Amino acid sequence: MTGTHRNSTITRRRALVVTGGTVAAGGLAVAGYRSAFADTADGVTDTTTVTTTDTNGATATGACMTLMSSVTEGPYYLDGALVRKDITEGKSGVPLTLRLTVVDATDGCTPVKGAAVEIWHCDAWGYYSGYTTANPGGSAPAESEDGSTANDATYLRGYQIANANGVVRFETIFPGWYTPRTCHIHVKVHTGGEKEDGTYEGGKVNYTGQLFFDDTVAEEIFMLEPYSRHSGSYTTLDDDMVYDGGGATSGLLTLKAVHKADPSKGYKGSLALAIDPDAENTGAGSGGGGEGGTPPSGTPTGEPPSGTPTGEPPSGAPSESASPSASASS
Description:
By secondary structure, this protein is mainly β. It is 2% helix and 24% strand. Strands 3, 4, 7, 10 and 11 form a 5-stranded mixed beta sheet that branches. A 4-stranded antiparallel beta sheet has the order 6-5-8-9, with no helix packed on it. Strands 1-2 form a two-stranded antiparallel sheet. The longest helix is centred in the middle third of the chain and has 8 residues, at 215-222. The protein starts with 48 loop residues before the first strand and ends in a 55-residue tail after the last strand.
């Protein structure tokens, strides 16, 4: 990164993230599709090549690759996210279409139909819904100044249920950043539950991880409005405490610009996630596979911030109020 976003002070602490370099029981992951945006599932085992066909007859072939162990869900998780494809709620930013494929690592990487993929991430200035008073670091406008009609308790959070090819798709925005983390999206894969009252209930969490963005792309995005109104020391991938440098096998998304000459038009991102449906890893607390570092000023350290979450959920939201998790930061 260059300019005001350059960070030369944050030390990598990847040893805190990966437990002995082993794969956690909670999940594995595979690199992005051969065809980045086809509704297909990759191959799964290290020794077996699997070819699958999507609903349009296109095929994709790949070999399964393991990801780092599951990481902490971080301090910004909230229960009760809505099942929906578009999670923006009017939040401004560069459009991002995210496609993720869930496959079963214990069964030849067959697609996991019905898996619930949950994501959450910060807005263009580094604020999370439910925690809009937490300081993202650097200099940024107050979250309330963005002018959107987004609900402070629910924006940029959601579930999607995997189709027959194990594929889910989200419409969101390119995340901003907060100190001391690089740009990222949190992800959980659930199985065994069902959609109920607008959210996903029951079952278990098989995988908790994070998705990352190439620094070159992030540099372009953060020069644009509204991202450019957040200045300070942005953490690159090399200095991030969670990303371990493994590329797609460490959560780095495959990105494709909608318009190469104009990054403001948006990006498409993809990755495939291989899970063990019998395993469980919520990523909460020390059982999540690693610490995530010190939270930014204003982040909950055992109790949710005053007045959080704020506002009323939109129509179709679960009737019970969401309860923040106060696990280690990431």
